[in-house]
Amino acid sequence: MLRSDFHFELPDELIAQYPLPERSASRLLCLDGASGAIDHRHFSQLPSLLREGDLLVFNDTRVIPARLWGQKETGGKLEILVERLTGTHTALAHIRSSKSPKPGTRILLTPEQGAEPCGLELTVTGRDDALFLLSSEGGPALSQMMREVGHMPLPPYIERSDEAADQERYQTVFAAREGAVAAPTAGLHFTDALLNEIATMGVQRCTVTLHVGAGTFQPVRADNIEDHRMHSEYIEVDEAACAAVRETRARGGRVIAVGTTAVRSLESASQGGEIAPFTGDTDIFIYPGYRFRSVDAMVTNFHLPESTLLMLVSAFAGREPIMAAYAAAVAERYRFFSYGDAMFITPANAQESA
């Protein structure tokens, strides 16, 4: 299957640059993958799509202020995007600068782009493929440094600097475990009030953890999608989540993943056929032809053209229904990507998610 099979035209003005004032005020496009039927609703109406006995699976990762600004001792400016904390004082990171820093380079951090150094510094200790190894040894913990001078790592298609409001809005209300450099955006639409309403219906809830990495924005460059090398991300699916999935299936309920990160977590833990606890890295790449084992429906935002996440939802609901739904979303002026609107999707073939 070709990358170009997942291309669509998107007017720039439909890319949401800010969230709506109310989280659950976003729109919700409902797609029945089996029939291709499309229904336009609002996210606050999600409870009407749920049934007693269903299970919502959330990703409880918390976004860290992973974007840092700094300069070399020579004065050269650079930008750091922490990909993963590997220890109290160590991390893997992307570094953007006019000239790649060599091992031993000291980086003097600044609170803002182009500002004067603030007294905090990092040292480049090596490379791991495209990533740089950083250390704050001899100084504060890296997590503390990020809290002091770090910025929320808004996606590249949000063409503005982060603002104070993003500290709260680019975070789900149920975020608990620090480690992501991008939000699990399908969860951004939920409020505490909506979660309570859903709970009173007898809909169950559990969490998994996937620390979203910057690789989620990595474009597919291979013409044949099977040649794409998927990035790795850290996940934890514990026994409580596995038991919740098994019990839901046993009582005839649906397992509804909130976001593609929850889908990737559940499916990574189900590669043996039956879902089982899993802790570690996953590089699962889901594209059309994949047989889903643990997901019966999903809530998801809209994804970039030719992206691995668009391929994932196409595997679930069918490429043609998804592309038709995206065309409808563009025609109806839905808001796209992280701060945009959402979809509720059921599978193209019920047996594919059995």
TrEMBL record:
Its main location: cytoplasm. It holds the Pfam family Queuosine_synth. Keywords: Cytoplasm, Queuosine biosynthesis, S-adenosyl-L-methionine, Transferase. SUPFAM superfamilies: QueA-like (SSF111337). It catalyses: 7-aminomethyl-7-carbaguanosine(34) in tRNA + S-adenosyl-L-methionine = epoxyqueuosine(34) in tRNA + adenine + L-methionine + 2 H(+). Its EC number is 2.4.99.17. It comes from the Bacteria. Coiled coil: none annotated. GO terms for molecular function: S-adenosylmethionine:tRNA ribosyltransferase-isomerase activity. Transfers and isomerizes the ribose moiety from AdoMet to the 7-aminomethyl group of 7-deazaguanine (preQ1-tRNA) to give epoxyqueuosine (oQ-tRNA). PANTHER family: S-ADENOSYLMETHIONINE:TRNA RIBOSYLTRANSFERASE-ISOMERASE. Monomer. This is S-adenosylmethionine:tRNA ribosyltransferase-isomerase. It comes from Halioglobus japonicus.
